[in-house]
Design a protein that fits this description.
By secondary structure, the chain is mainly beta. The chain has helices at about 235-255, 255-265, 290-295; strands at about 1-5, 10, 10-15, 20-25, 25-35, 60-65, 75-85, 85-90, 105-115, 115-120, 125, 130-135, 145, 150, 150-155, 165-170, 175-185, 200-210, 220, 225-230, 270-275, 280-285.
């Protein structure tokens, strides 16, 4: 098993990034991650503004996967997510959905005890660790790790958890996979621009998939297949996620165009991932059980 330390992190997903490790397809790798504040906030008297945008959303990596070439698909099986014993949340004016309502900067340190986030003495929230930032390099441009896109990035999809499998595009040799921005728990929307931000370790198995066509990024959970899309508006992101799932159904399950649309309108669940990043992110969830009935198997 390979290990990448949190000291190796990037703030851009870029073809210019130098890989910190090279592995063969099928390898298992542990990514040690900083929280989205670069582990800088340790006390409640440290506001968001004390960190600086140059420290926000570091992603550990990148990892180079041998035999990955442009046009391939990178399969990332999330085997485990380990998190620290405490997490951080912040609010600040002009940030997030409530930016015009929040009047000051507030930082909250939230301990994790017995599998729950201790929000206060009355509210103990079951944790569900997830990966906020995970992606491959774009083909030519440099994209900040805080921005989502077709390469993945800061999708903040709460379904990217232990036991799920994420499919990402290979745009450059080696794919250049990076990840970070773990949350102990986060609701859809991430409305104050953060979940329960926390350091941790992610164990993944990375495999190069040849000669396949999936609408990427795409996620497989225990009971759903999920298309994820990001765009300037939530409306656009929702349409893209829906169109991508419709394409998947038509191309891989053999349904006619109109019939696939009808089915998607009956059982497809359109969800918000986040509405606070430079681009908005939505997802379309479709039952794995129906995919199974058509004997299609994800690669």
């Amino acid at each position: 098993m390979e290990f990448i330390s949190k000291v190796h992190s990037v703030l851009m997903m870029s073809p210019k990034n130098t890989p910190v490790k090279k592995v063969e397809s099928g390898s298992t790798v542990v990514f040690e991650t900083l929280d989205c504040f670069s582990n800088f906030i340790q006390k409640e008297d440290q506001p968001f503004s004390s960190v600086g945008w140059d420290k926000i959303n570091p992603a550990t990596g990148p990892l180079y996967i041998e035999d990955a070439v442009k046009g391939d698909t990178l399969k990332v099986e999330i085997l485990d997510i380990e998190i620290d014993s405490k997490g951080v949340m912040t609010t600040a004016p002009n940030l997030g959905v409530l930016g015009n309502i929040v009047t000051g900067e507030t930082t909250k340190i939230i301990p994790i005890q017995d599998g729950k986030a201790i929000f206060n003495e009355k509210i103990h929230i079951p944790i569900k660790p997830m990966i906020g930032v995970i992606g491959t390099s774009p083909a030519t441009e440099d994209i900040p790790t805080g921005t989502p896109g077709s390469h993945g990035g800061n999708m903040d999809c709460k379904k990217i958890i232990k036991g799920s499998t994420l499919y990402l595009p290979v745009n450059v040799p080696g794919a250049l996979l990076s990840m970070g921005d773990l949350h102990a728990v986060m609701a859809d929307g991430e409305i104050v621009i953060c979940g329960l931000e926390i350091p941790g370790k992610v164990t993944v198995k990375v495999s190069v998939i040849k000669n396949t066509s999936l609408p990427l990024p795409m996620l497989q959970s225990e009971d759903k297949v999920i298309t994820i899309a990001s765009a300037e508006t939530l409306d656009e992101a929702a349409k893209l996620a829906t169109i991508h799932m419709h394409t998947f159904i038509v191309e891989n399950m053999g349904l006619e165009i109109d019939e696939a649309g009808m089915l998607l309108s009956l059982v497809g669940e359109l969800r918000i991932c986040q509405v606070v990043d430079p681009l908005m992110t939505a997802r379309m969830e479709f039952p794995q059980s129906i995919v199974d009935q058509y004997e299609y198997r994800m690669p």
